[in-house]
C-alpha cells in the first residue's frame, strides 16, 4: 500500500489482503479504493 496516499488502497491491495485493508479502514475511520495502477512493461 502506498504511504503517500493515506487512506487510499488499490483493488489489488483489497484482493490480496482484505483483512489488512479492513483493519486500516477501521483505524482510519474511512478508506478510499483507487483503481490499480497500470504497469507498462
Outline the structure in words:
The chain is of the alpha+beta class and 41 residues long. It has one domain (1-36). The protein is built from 2 helices and 2 strands; from the N terminus they run E-H-H-E. It has helices at residues 11-16, 18-28; strands spanning 8-10, 32-34. A two-stranded parallel sheet has the order 1-2. The radius of gyration is 10 Å and the shape is elongated. It starts with 7 loop residues before the first strand and ends in a 7-residue tail after the last strand.
Question: Concise description?
Answer:
With about 40 residues, the protein is of the alpha+beta class. The protein is about 40% helix and about 15% strand.
